[in-house]
Amino acid sequence: MNYRTAASRPICFHCGLFVPDDSPFTIKLDQAIHPACCAGCQAVAQTIIDNGLGDYYRHRNVEAGKVEPLPDDVLQQICLYDSPDIQRSFVHQESEHIREAALILEGITCAACVWLNEQHLTRQSGVLSVDINYATHRARIRWNNQVTQLSHILQAITDIGYRAHPFDAERQDQLAQKERKSALARLWVAGLSMMQVMMYAVPVYLADGDMTADIEQLMRWASLVLTIPTVIYSAVPFYRGTINDLKARRVGMDVPVTLGILIAFLASCWALWQGSGEVYFDSVSMFVFLLLGGRFLESMARRKAGAAVDTLVRLIPAFAHHLPHYPANREQQEIVVASLTPGTVLLVKPGETIPADGRVLEGESGVDESLMSGESRPIQKAIGDVVIGGATNIGSPLIMAVERVGQNSTLASIVRLLDRAMSQKPQLAQLADRISARFVAALLLVAAVTYACWWWVDPSRALSITISVLVISCPCALSLATPAALAAATGTLSKLGLLVTRGHALETLAQTTHFAFDKTGTLTFGKMRLRTLTAFLDTDRDHAHALAAALESGSEHPIARALCDEAPPSILHATQITAQTGHGISGQIDGQTYRLGRLDYVAAIAGPLPPSYPPTADDSTPVYLGTPTRWLACFELGDVIRPDAEPLIRRLHALGKQCLLLSGDAPGPVQALADRLGLEQAIGGLTPQGKLDAITDIQRRGATVTMIGDGVNDAPVLGAAQLSIALGGGTDVARASADMVLINDQLHAIDQALGVATRCQRIIRQNLWWALCYNLIALPAAMAGLVTPWLASIGMALSSLLVIGNALRLLKPPIKCNPQPEDANLRHIATDFTKQSDS
Predict the structure, then answer these.
(1) Does domain 319-352+357-404 sit in CATH 2.40.50.100?
(2) How far is CA 262 from CA 190, 288, 463, in A?
């Protein structure tokens, strides 16, 4: 194979794409060095060679192409993608036999292409589900590896005229750039042709019969010559879509467009050959140009709507700094991220992106996770802390051990959830798809009837009116109404730290009447924290806190951690520490004996607590500090309400929503919390079944319930509610049961999500009504002969662009509910968002 073009520009040894001029990637085979376009191609090719399959490249004699059907020998070669080593970077193994692949589909031009691929693949034996993100052309395909192989799925996609390959962010950029250049070239040819044809057509129209027959015929022949490039080159995407539709035995949205182009062109050629009749070369070139222009603008808007997901996908860098001999020495080696395995030790320098999920072995630094969680402040990481691939190291170098890579990483889990949500469709969208699928067939019948009627009334106008009918009513706007809005809304929420994991979530959230909250870990932080510190007599508060932290510095008890985590800096050191289980701890600091613990334990050396000292709260755990001669301080510990809980409840009440608290904690503290937050109803002491019964009882009265929880005992009720929101810092089971995941644990995002969901439903309905009204007006007008073919193409293009533009309004960030300022000591950001289940 020749790996350079005629212009001596190198192409990739693996995939055949052009190699950027500054590409550092190479592939070594038989002592020869070959160019590679990206790290993904380099890693896949090297894996093929390392597994003894280098003959694939030695015997290959067909260069990689785009979208065209694959030759038989290449179809046999795609079985190499069945290798587990090659699949590691883009295939997620859910269970022993269930796999999920992240693929990029080439050849997607409209919503109908997505529908066609989904329908075709779901009919394949062993394929469990197919979710295609229309905004990014990324597909998630799940299959049973015992029944079918990935190579069979790739071949099935090729059979209907599309091409699929493992996802690689750099390669996707190259493909997107190539598609954009191709679209611009076709648009440029069509535009130039249209302008030139109009130069010959307009004088004929203006002459109104005064032009001599030979000059008019010459003008028409010139128009034919200038229209041919448009028909045989610019209009190819419409032909390709039509062929794919017919292969799948369905009538898609490209069919009426193709019929309109070919009928108008062939009829004009016949009229020109016969020397009589109307010609429509100007109309053909004009509506091909306008339709291509509309599709090009639509593709740009679609990429903008899906930019949030694309940004996440591109967070992982191509290379990492490997420390192969750590801890013996710190010698660095550059390593391709695609080849990382669990246990690999990496160095992440300040300003660099963390290449994989792992745990800090050495160093302390702030890490920016804003692109994934929406949390704008850096999160401090120290030895033993978990770091997420895709986050940015800000402060100082970190040495980390890799724990999860590829499709098992946190970032891959987030992208999977977003892809699934953006590919699933609410009821309105499913109805629109069913209507549009039947609408095209009905449109062809209407066009045939229109032609017959006008042939009887005025044969000279029958053809042009039929063409107008075919073009003006293509249901592109109807099919775009929902995917565009969902892509924009889901991307906006992901920037706020709220992942939409199922397609119905936004629709259901907008319809919610009741919000049910769990208590511990949801409205509260779910861990012991210092509430108040009361210093007795002339004791210094900070000094008392430092004394308590010194006594508890070696303990892992929750009370000890709460006292130590929030203590001021100190050099105090305790010795002769003695712990008495269930009572407290004693020790010496600077020669003085101290006791820290229960009231009776400290009173044994400090004497009775004076009655003048203030009582502690009923729902707190008091810890006293004293010496043999005096009482020093009282620390009240307990769970702390999240600072944005009360503003969220107030906002929901203002919107007319009812809020209730369902908890397994004791009824007293549950009711006290409800009174503080202004909740209408609070039930404590509930078992998981009790929570489920409470939700079911509310639903029987006609309520739409959204449940927000975080624990294992919330999983049943999360599954039973019409909509469930799990906190990212909660359990894996809760997240797996949820329709949305709040990965930054900031409750005010729920208020923002409610606003986005309401706007999304409103915009979807506006789009659907516009598409319906447009067709109800445009189709009769075209049938009545009031619309020319070129005007029909303008109407169709503007209809689709209006729908896309309306959806892009959802990219505007919603207004926040302004939660109370959060104390630095009460910050709780969930970072262990792992093992996300897609069940």
Answers:
(1) no
(2) 15, 11, 12
Residue positions annotated with a catalytic role? 518
Gyration radius (Cα) of the chain, Å: 33
> What letter would DSSP give residue 231?
I
Instruction: List the domain boundaries for the chain.
Output: 1-64, 65-167, 319-352+357-404, 498-525+642-761, 529-638
Q: Is the pTM of this model over 0.70?
A: no
d(CA 662, CA 34): 63
- How many Cβ atoms from other residues are within 10 Å of residue 612's Cβ? 6
Structural contact between residues 142 and 127, judged by C-beta atoms closer than 8 angstroms: yes
What are the pLDDT digits (tens) for 683-702?
A: 887 777 778 788 888 888 88
3-state secondary structure of 669: helix
CB 345 within 8 A of CB 397: no
193-225 burial, b at 16+ Cβ within 10 Å, e below that, comes to bbebbbebbeebeeeeeebeeeebeebbebbbe
* CATH placement of domain 498-525+642-761: 3.40.50.1000
> What is the amino acid identity at position 162?
Y
Q: In sequence order, what DSSP letters do the residues of 132-163 get, joined into one string? A: EETTTTEEEEEEETTT--HHHHHHHHHHTT-E
- pLDDT > 70? residue 69: no
At 559, the amino acid letter reads I
**What pLDDT is recorded for position 827?**
30
Distance CA 28, CA 24 (A): 13
If one looks up domain 65-167 in CATH, what number appears? 3.30.70.100
CATH number belonging to the domain at 529-638, selected among 3.40.50.2300, 3.40.1110.10, 1.10.10.10, 3.40.50.2000: 3.40.1110.10
Among 386, 499, 385, CA closest to 728: 499
User: β-strands 138-144, 127-133: how paired?
Assistant: antiparallel
Beta strands in 512-572 (DSSP E): 514-517, 529-535
